[in-house]
Write a structure and sequence with these properties.
Helix content: 55-70%
Number of strands: 4
Order of helices and strands: EEEEHHHHHHHH
Distance between the termini: 58 Å
Shape: globular
Strand content: under 5%
Largest sheet: 2 strands, antiparallel
Number of domains: 1
Length: about 250
């Protein structure tokens, strides 16, 4: 049986070093570029005609636009429109990484913690910087919810501070763990099918069961890919809300 973890190994395609720093062009870089090019081409073609009666591609892009706009409106409010380019780009990057990884022989760059953590840290740093710029030191009143008795302050403030600091960890690990677990399961059941089919004619019929289950898993994993892209961006919207609304 093939090693199910091998699919996550980063392989250099064009080795390149600058001093002691490895800046090689890897399979991860390749599929990141593929995601950017594909998303740019598809969305560019979809919005090119701008017909009064939209075609399928234009309807797809407009539906995606409305979906992200409604997500921002529901979670941040009307003032959150300034974050639309960021949230839209974030959703597309995560969605492309999740779905392109389902293509046989491809690479799922969202299955690497360094990628998901970088995206989560981007949101975390933006919330911190923009929040302080807009609200000054009043921004840190987030760590003391309204109505908390004074005698509970030494306990509540550290809890709120820790929950704020671990946001990028929980945001990144959730996406990373779901992608890794799903792809490992797909690999394991695909290996079962190949092994049983190669064992002989008698076992070939037995290979149909894991193959059928693997087909179902692919559909389920596609649903998870869409759901995780949504969860990642909607949580980013909730965190960005702190830069606009301070309740106390």
């Amino acid at each position: 049986m093939a090693n199910p973890v091998q699919q996550f190994e980063i392989q250099p395609l064009i080795p390149l070093h600058i001093g002691q720093v490895d800046v090689s062009f890897t399979n991860s870089s390749l599929w990141m570029m593929a995601a950017v090019v594909l998303a740019t081409v598809v969305l560019g073609m979809a919005s090119k005609k701008r017909a009064l009666v939209p075609g399928r591609m234009q309807m797809l892009s407009e539906s995606l636009y409305e979906f992200i706009a409604n997500m921002i409106r529901d979670n941040i409010g009307s003032e959150g429109r300034r974050y639309f380019p960021l949230i839209f780009t974030l959703f597309v990057i995560v969605l492309m990484g999740n779905t392109l990884g389902l293509i046989p022989g491809s690479f799922t760059y969202t299955s690497h913690l360094v990628v998901t953590l970088a995206l989560a840290l981007l949101i975390f740093v933006m919330v911190l910087i923009i929040g302080v710029i807009r609200h000054g030191f009043h921004f840190f009143s987030l760590f003391l919810p309204p109505g908390v008795p004074t005698w509970l302050t030494p306990l509540i403030v550290p809890i709120e501070l820790i929950s704020f600091i671990i946001r990028p960890v929980t945001l990144s690990v959730r996406l990373f763990a779901n992608m890794v677990a799903g792809h490992i399961m797909l690999k394991v059941f695909a290996s079962f099918s190949v092994s049983m089919a190669a064992a002989g004619s008698f076992w070939f019929l037995g290979a149909a069961a894991p193959m059928l289950f693997n087909t179902i898993l692919i559909g389920f994993e596609l649903l998870i890919a869409l759901l995780q892209a949504y969860v990642f961006t909607v949580l980013s919207c909730i965190y960005l809300k702190d830069t606009i609304h301070i309740d106390h």
